DNA sequence: ATCAAGATTACCT
DNA sequence: GGTAATCTTGATA
C-alpha cells in the first residue's frame, strides 16, 4: 500500500547549498505541517530565491534585525514574517550560517488535509472550482491554509512539526523561470521558479 | 515622533 | 483596473 506522504524527510545537506539550487530543487517536494497529529501537506509548485549578499529585495540585505535574524541561520530552518502587516509568508533558509539566504514558498498544490485547508481559508466546507484553485496559490494563502504563523519562525525543518519530504527532481523542461513578483528593488533578477502549467500558481 | 514603503490579498467598480 | 487592511523597518527630524 502506498501513501501520498511516503518518502524521506530532506536532510541538512539539501538545505545548506546555494539558494538558487535549493529553490529549483524544492519544486515538487512536499511541505508538511503536523498539527497535533493532523497532517496538512502540499506539493511546492512556486518559489522565489532571496540573497541578502547581493539582492536589495531580501530582508537580510540590511543586515541582522529582530525580524530577519532567522535568515542568518544555516540552511534547513523556517523563516516566517508578517507581510504588509496582514499575511504571513514562509521561507526555507538555505546556505551556510550567517549568509542570509532563503527561499520563499509562493504556492503549493494541496495534497493532504484539504478539507481543513478549505476551512482555514474560507470558513466553510463547500467550495467552487475557482475557490479550490485559489486555496494555496500565493505565499499568504499557503500560510493561512497550512496554519503557519510567526510562532513557527525558527523551527528546524529536520524536526517533526514542519518538514519537507523528498521527491524526484522536477525535469528541467518543466521548470519555468521569471522575475520575482511584487518587488521593486533588484527586480530584474530571474529568481522565481515554478512548475509550468500547474493550476495552483499565484499567477 | 512621524512617515513612507513593503517578498499580499480580497473586494470594489 | 483601484484600494483598504495593518505591522515592521529604516529614514528623517
Question: How much is the average pLDDT?
Answer: 96
Relative helix content: 10-25%
Number of helical segments? 5
- Rg, alpha carbons: 16 Å
Structural class given helices, strands, pairing? alpha+beta
The span between the termini is 36 Å
The name of the CATH architecture is: Roll
CATH class: Alpha Beta
Number of domains: 1
Helix-strand topology string: HHEEEEEHHHEEE
What does this structure look like?
The chain is of the alpha+beta class. It has a single domain, classed as 3-methyladenine DNA Glycosylase, Chain A (Roll). Helices cover 16% and strands 29% of the residues. The chain is built from 5 helices and 8 strands; from the N terminus they run H-H-E-E-E-E-E-H-H-H-E-E-E. Strands 1, 2, 3, 4, 5, 6, 7 and 8 form an 8-stranded antiparallel beta sheet that branches. A hairpin with a 6-residue loop joins strand 4 (87-94) and strand 5. The chain starts with 11 loop residues before the first helix and ends in an 8-residue tail after the last strand. The mean pLDDT is 96.
Give a quick set of tags describing it:
3-methyladenine DNA Glycosylase, Chain A; single chain; eight-stranded antiparallel β-sheet; 203 residues; DNA-binding; alpha+beta; 8 strands; 16% helix
Short note summarizing the structure:
With 203 residues, this protein is of the alpha+beta class.
Amino acid at each position: 500500500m502506498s501513501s501520498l506522504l511516503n518518502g524521506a524527510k530532506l536532510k541538512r545537506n539539501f538545505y545548506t547549498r546555494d539558494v538558487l539550487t535549493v529553490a529549483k530543487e524544492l519544486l515538487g517536494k512536499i511541505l508538511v505541517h503536523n498539527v497535533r497529529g493532523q497532517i496538512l501537506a502540499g506539493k511546492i509548485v512556486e518559489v522565489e530565491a532571496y540573497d541578502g549578499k547581493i539582492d536589495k529585495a531580501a530582508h537580510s540585505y540590511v543586515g541582522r534585525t529582530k525580524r530577519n535574524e532567522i535568515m542568518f541561520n544555516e540552511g534547513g530552518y523556517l523563516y516566517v514574517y508578517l507581510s504588509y502587516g496582514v499575511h504571513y509568508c514562509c521561507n526555507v533558509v538555505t546556505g551556510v550560517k550567517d549568509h542570509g539566504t532563503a527561499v520563499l514558498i509562493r504556492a503549493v498544490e494541496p495534497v493532504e488535509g484539504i478539507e481543513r485547508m478549505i476551512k482555514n481559508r474560507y470558513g466553510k466546507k463547500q467550495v467552487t472550482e475557482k475557490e479550490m484553485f485559489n486555496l494555496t496559490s500565493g505565499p499568504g494563502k499557503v500560510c493561512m491554509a497550512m496554519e503557519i504563523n510567526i510562532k513557527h519562525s525558527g523551527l528546524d525543518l529536520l524536526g517533526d512539526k514542519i518538514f519537507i519530504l523528498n521527491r524526484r527532481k522536477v525535469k528541467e523542461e518543466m521548470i519555468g523561470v521569471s522575475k520575482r513578483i511584487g518587488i521593486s528593488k533588484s527586480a530584474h533578477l530571474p529568481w522565481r521558479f515554478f512548475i509550468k502549467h500547474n493550476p495552483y500558481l499565484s499567477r
